[in-house]
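2024-03-11 09:14:02 INFO worker-7 job=invfold-0412 stage=load source=structure_tokens
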């Protein structure tokens, strides 16, 4: 993608980034959504570059009074166009796999732009991260510390480490799958074991403890869980410094900032920033954040065409060409996404909006008041910029959708729609048989 797509496009004075209705038609920035559907087909993910920039700049500005680094969580949306856009804004990245490291490098991130997280890193992935010179590795177990030390020794270097702490606080999030900081979760080192893990770093000559990390969950709109976790983690840093771990200079508070899908309270970004900045100042450390959903969710829309209308068992069904393989969140998390027509008919109906996948769990909405859409109409599924395309699959041998970036009054396809040939590209007809 050329650099021209990354710089803000010049548009008229009434233009506002994002999705809005004008003269009875849905727009993304200054481009009619229906036009995009006709030009590139459906299903298609559409992203507003302007919304991503707004979200990043708002968070970055709110933290202006404290040394900080905003590392975008690549797992939320790993499209190279989104990564390059954020790289141009000055963001770093938080990665959780070797594949995400590869994407980050392709987008222009390098070395200290990168933080490596994740509960199950392989020795190969750790080696690749050290070769890249990442800012630090967020280590989640004593076993990982030992492996990282061995990998660093083979490279003749000392690996910078932050220990991911499970602060063991209660979190009120929309679904239990997106809670990560409660007692007994697989993520992080149990709170009472962190000092022992720190002492282990002292016995391993090829690792150095430079930070403490936490991540308590996703889609959090209240600051209270952060406040509880920060109090516990700050006390831990103070204890570690008393134990002569005086090289701790980063406090990584993870991500998790919530966005509005339905009627959730909007995140008070300024209050959040004030709270995490206060903790960083008290500890005299550089603050690291790993926002994902907050930066990209509201920037995304999934366009889908209505294929059929059907009535069964007293229920209305709107059958679309997008299904659970394209957007898994409603089926997997019982997530709500607002569904709007790109050109509303003016009548509403209570219906299930379902896809073509051969599963009863293949739905986008149930018992929802939606536009009385007819075959050929195009619907837009809102707030689909995070955990949408990245969780898409080829279930039922369905090609994954296209992705489109809109910037002002222009748009570009940033991921081509998969073709049938792509579905079998890595498979082999002529088998290379082996024996043990």
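2024-03-11 09:14:09 INFO worker-7 stage=emit residues=436
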């Amino acid at each position: 993608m050329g650099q021209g797509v990354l710089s803000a496009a010049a548009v008229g004075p009434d233009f506002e980034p994002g999705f809005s209705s004008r003269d009875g038609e849905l727009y993304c920035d200054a481009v009619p959504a229906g036009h995009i559907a006709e030009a590139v087909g459906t299903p298609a993910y559409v992203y507003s570059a302007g919304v991503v920039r707004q979200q990043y700049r708002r968070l970055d500005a709110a933290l202006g009074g404290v040394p900080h680094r905003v590392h975008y969580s690549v797992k939320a949306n790993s499209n190279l166009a989104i990564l390059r856009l954020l790289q141009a804004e000055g963001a770093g990245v938080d990665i959780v796999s070797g594949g995400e490291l590869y994407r980050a490098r392709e987008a222009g991130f390098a070395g200290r732009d990168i933080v490596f997280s994740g509960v199950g890193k392989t020795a190969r992935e750790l080696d690749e991260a050290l070769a890249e010179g990442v800012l630090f590795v967020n280590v989640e177990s004593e076993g990982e510390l030992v492996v990282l030390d061995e990998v660093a020794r083979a490279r003749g270097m000392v690996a910078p480490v932050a220990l991911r702490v499970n602060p063991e606080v209660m979190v009120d999030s929309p679904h239990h799958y997106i809670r990560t900081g409660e007692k007994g979760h697989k993520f992080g080192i149990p709170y009472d074991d962190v000092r022992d893990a720190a002492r282990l770093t002292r016995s391993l000559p090829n690792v150095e403890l430079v930070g403490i990390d936490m991540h308590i969950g996703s889609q959090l709109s209240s600051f209270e869980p952060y406040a509880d976790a920060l109090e516990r983690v700050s006390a831990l840093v103070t204890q570690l410094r008393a134990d002569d771990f005086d090289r701790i200079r980063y406090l990584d508070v993870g991500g998790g900032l919530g966005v509005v899908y339905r009627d959730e309270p909007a995140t008070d970004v300024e209050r959040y920033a004030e709270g995490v900045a206060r903790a960083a100042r008290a500890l005299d450390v550089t603050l690291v954040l790993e926002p994902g959903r907050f930066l990209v969710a509201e920037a995304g829309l999934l366009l889908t065409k209505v294929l059929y209308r059907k009535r069964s068992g007293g229920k209305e069904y709107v059958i679309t060409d997008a299904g659970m393989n394209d957007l898994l969140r409603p089926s997997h998390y019982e997530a709500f996404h607002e569904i709007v027509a790109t050109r509303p008919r003016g009548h509403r109906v209570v219906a299930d909006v379902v896809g073509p996948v051969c599963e009863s769990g293949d739905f986008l909405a149930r018992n929802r008041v939606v536009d009385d859409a007819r075959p050929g109409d195009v619907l837009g599924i809102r707030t689909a910029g995070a955990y949408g395309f990245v969780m898409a699959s080829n279930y039922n041998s369905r090609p994954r959708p296209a992705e489109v970036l809109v910037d002002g009054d222009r748009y570009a396809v940033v991921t081509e729609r998969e073709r049938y040939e792509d579905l079998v590209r890595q498979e082999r007809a002529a088998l290379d048989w082996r024996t043990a």
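2024-03-11 09:14:09 INFO worker-7 stage=report msg="Residues 224-242 form the longest helix (19 residues)."
2024-03-11 09:14:10 INFO worker-7 job finished
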